[in-house]
Design brief:
By secondary structure, this protein is an alpha/beta fold. The protein has a single domain, classed as P-loop containing nucleotide triphosphate hydrolases (Rossmann fold, 3-Layer(aba) Sandwich), CATH 3.40.50. The protein has a 5-stranded parallel sheet, with helices on both faces. α1 packs across α2 and α3 packs across α4. The longest helix has 21 residues.
């Protein structure tokens, strides 16, 4: 199946099922922002990037509160970001669909390094660091496991580029 056909199929499924609140999650470098952009090109949702919220507020409780408020305020919302540390019952309850991007660690590492080399104006929390590499390398065993524990199965779609 071609990339265009696959993404069109996802977008058609979202429309058909009247999905209004989506959270795209995955490892750093997995393609969350790319998928957010593609979906938004067709569906025109209000986008919330959790990285940007952290850049603006730099306080976990405040970011969680702002995110939950946006989920309650907006009819059509597309959240770009994982942050299992602020993935609580309220966010899970108020989100209709979680798209978990499954991507190889090597591809994620390549993308993050490439972004750093090409674009020096990355968000503060995505500069090359031990913490970022650790997050990519441990995503499946740590963060993905937590996602699966907290999110009901019927609210999850797995995506592979």
């Amino acid at each position: 199946m071609t990339f265009e056909k696959k993404t069109k199929g996802l977008i058609d499924w979202i429309k058909k099922n009247n999905i209004k609140k989506i959270n795209i999650v995955g490892s750093p470098g997995s393609g969350k922002t790319k998928l957010t952009s593609i979906i938004n090109d067709y569906l025109n949702f209000s986008i919330v990037n959790i990285d940007e919220l952290f850049q603006d507020y730099d306080n976990k409780e405040l970011v969680e509160s702002k995110l939950n408020n946006k989920l309650c305020e907006n009819d059509l919302i597309l959240i770009d970001g994982t942050y299992t540390s602020i993935l609580k019952k309220k966010r899970v309850k108020n989100t209709n669909l979680f798209i978990i991007i499954k991507e190889s660690k090597i591809k994620c590492l390549k993308r993050v390094i490439s972004r750093q080399l090409i674009n020096q104006s990355l968000l503060n929390n995505e500069s090359i660091s031990y913490k970022l590499f650790k997050s990519i390398l441990l995503f499946n065993s740590k963060h993905n496991k937590k996602l699966i524990e907290l999110i009901p199965n019927e609210k999850i779609i797995y995506w592979k580029w």
